[in-house]
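Exercise 7b. Backbone tokens:
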């Protein structure tokens, strides 16, 4: 088969451009990084054009690659729609022997960490498969559109079973090129001289541009601000030197920290941490053993994995838990942190 006819090769190209590297692409497609590189090489050779500048981090599309990207993305979307219809039909036929769990998570988590964990779960429970959706909410869960929600904000509502599994600290990051051009941001009051990259969205714990050093709260007043619902896009913009990203957990930046693409700024001033939890309805948790088993399993194993990512990111920055938590117990006991009463935050004048 000609390489230009290979949908996998086109998917490698699209994912490599969207994630900015082959490491994340290989994880998302469950292939070896070397294999991903070979697919991209062969596609470029077959087309006789260069699609990506791979000597840059993150990858940047060439003029030819930029022209082909949108058509390739639409082609792959059609394939996904077809496979989704086929999958739904197949699941209806096999539902007697195989159970499908419908889950939803935020884009950054869903792309980077959820899929490997679901594959791990299916190895333990071969009779379970998953239908994954992005950016659904509690209303979708209550309405039965999804069965399990991976949330990152605090709430306490009747009718839901909430299983907190990690407290995820957030720090501000910028690229060396940004710092060279605009200077190092060290104090919140200097944020007016900088560009902020801020996460928005309904399923996101909005910071309200408040940061703390563990004692005081201060407001960030960005000179310019770019908001986006896509965490991957915000990280990519930060790597490209567009601005400072401060609205995402430190574990989200391990690759960038390892490769020197991003460095921490703002000293140890940080926004409130994410409160990660696995959520389902009380009805499902009590009546459906497959949901209860999955929720409990994810709470345990994703809790361990999340903490490992946090500790690795901190070690890459030569920081410890005291630098990012007002109370270290919040890291070790996420359930206690999740349900403890909130304190009123007042920004220093």
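Sequence design result:
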């Amino acid at each position: 088969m000609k390489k230009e006819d290979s949908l996998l090769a086109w998917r490698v190209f699209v994912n490599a451009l969207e994630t900015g590297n082959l490491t994340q692409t290989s994880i998302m497609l469950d292939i070896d990084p070397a294999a991903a590189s070979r697919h991209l090489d062969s596609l470029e050779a077959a087309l006789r054009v260069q699609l990506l500048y791979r000597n840059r981090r993150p990858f940047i599309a060439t003029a030819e690659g930029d022209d082909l990207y949108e058509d390739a993305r639409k082609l792959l979307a059609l394939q996904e729609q077809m496979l989704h219809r086929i999958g739904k039909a197949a699941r209806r036929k096999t539902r007697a022997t195989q159970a499908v769990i419908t889950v939803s998570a935020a884009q950054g988590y869903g792309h980077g960490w959820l899929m490997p964990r679901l594959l791990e779960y299916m190895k333990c429970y071969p009779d379970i498969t998953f239908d994954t959706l992005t950016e659904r909410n509690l209303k979708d869960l209550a309405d039965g559109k999804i069965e399990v929600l991976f949330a990152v904000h605090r709430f306490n509502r009747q009718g839901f079973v909430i299983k907190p599994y990690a407290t995820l600290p957030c720090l501000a990051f910028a690229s060396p090129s940004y710092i060279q051009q605009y200077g190092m941001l060290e104090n919140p009051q200097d944020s007016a001289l900088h560009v902020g990259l801020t996460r928005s969205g309904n399923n996101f714990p909005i910071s309200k541009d408040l940061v703390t050093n563990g004692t005081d709260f201060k407001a960030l007043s960005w000179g310019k601000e770019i908001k986006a619902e896509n965490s991957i896009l915000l990280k990519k913009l930060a790597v490209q030197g567009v601005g400072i990203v401060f609205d995402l957990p430190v574990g989200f930046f391990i690759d960038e920290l390892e490769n020197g693409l991003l460095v921490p700024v703002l000293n140890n001033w940080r926004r409130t941490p994410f409160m990660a939890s696995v959520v389902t309805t009380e009805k499902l948790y009590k009546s459906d053993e497959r949901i209860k088993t999955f929720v409990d399993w994810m709470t345990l194993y994703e809790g361990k994995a999340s903490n490992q990512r946090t500790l690795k990111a901190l070690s890459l920055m030569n920081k410890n838990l005291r630098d990012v938590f007002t109370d270290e117990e919040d890291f070790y006991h996420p359930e206690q942190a999740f349900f403890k009463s909130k304190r009123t935050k007042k920004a220093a004048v």
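Instructor comment: DSSP finds 14 helices and 14 strands in the chain. The radius of gyration is 21 Å.
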